[in-house]
Amino acid sequence: MTRKPIVAGMFYADNFNELDSQINDSFNSKFGPWALPLSKRTKNILGIIAPHAGYPYSGPAAAWAYKEIAESKFPNTYIMLGLSHSGYPSCVSLEDWETPFGPIKTDIEFNRTLMANSSLKQNEEAHAQEHSIEVQLPFLQFASKDHLKELKIAPIIISEDIPYEDIAKAIVKTIEQTRRKVTIIISSDFTHYGMNYGFFPFHIEDAKERMYKLDKEAIENIKSLDPKKFLNYIEKTGATICGRTPIAAGIAICKILGAKKAELLNYYTSGDISKDYSSAVGYAAISIG
Predict the structure, then answer these.
(1) In the predicted model, what is the mean pLDDT of residues 93-101?
(2) What is the CATH number of domain 2-288?
């Protein structure tokens, strides 16, 4: 079976040519890196954090993160850490996935071994209704044009039903057992502000400045590579960072694998694009290495 796209035509274009153009535009946006990836794969990164909203808004931030992916050494498996917006528990997918760019193979051996090493179960229904991993995949395919036949992913939803530390340790154990070279892709938007999101601790007149401040401090905690410190900040401030648990697990994994630093590549909000901060979302691109 193949997991079909559910937000093609909504979050991103649903045909090859339009999608390719949309991603090119994201790289060349004034909010993007202003350049396509270089063809040389000389960098060494362990992971990225990239947003998962509609490409007209979050695409330029994603382009920063996937420029790092495209310019880094190609791994055996990209471990995709997403969340469930509809409340499903932590789980894996064993199906292959599909986008308008074509199919993507799932590393079934990796995810089966992960299930044996943890309490994670296969749940295709959860993955079928969730966009946080799907939205990453066209960018990943675009960044992997030189390795499309070898491209493999391990799709994992991380919720709060299992301690993030347990999932992180199980993933690292699985990496070691399967002898995979991996890159961790963490899917998360940052602060969701406004009536649409039920989070409005400050006045709209201050929304831009306060969103930037709230997310800047969250990002500083990520840069410390301390997942507990990051989660404590979320609890203290109430910051509506939807992928907080995947972020915590991803930091923990990368740190065990030897990460020394996290770098903010770019940050902005949807309000910077729409010029409307009454309901806005923060987007960050972060590399971990």
Answers:
(1) 98
(2) 3.40.830.10
Q: What gap in Å lies between CA 288 and CA 227, rounded to an integer? A: 13
State residue 39's pLDDT score: 85
**Prediction pTM value:** 0.98
Separation between Cα atoms, residue 109 and residue 76, nearest integer Å: 12
SS3 105: strand
Q: What does the pLDDT read at residue 40?
A: 87
pLDDT band for position 215 (cuts 50, 70, 90): very high
3-state secondary structure of 125: helix
Question: What are the E-state strand segments in the chain?
Answer: 2-3, 47-50, 77-82, 91-92, 96-99, 102-106, 121-122, 152-157, 182-187, 192-194, 262-269, 279-288
With 90 as the cut, is the pLDDT of residue 199 above it? yes
Rounded distance between C-alpha atoms, residue 78 and residue 140, angstroms: 9
* Segments making up each domain of the chain, as ranges: 2-288
Residues 173, 259 contacting (CB under 8 angstroms): no
DSSP classification of residue 94: -
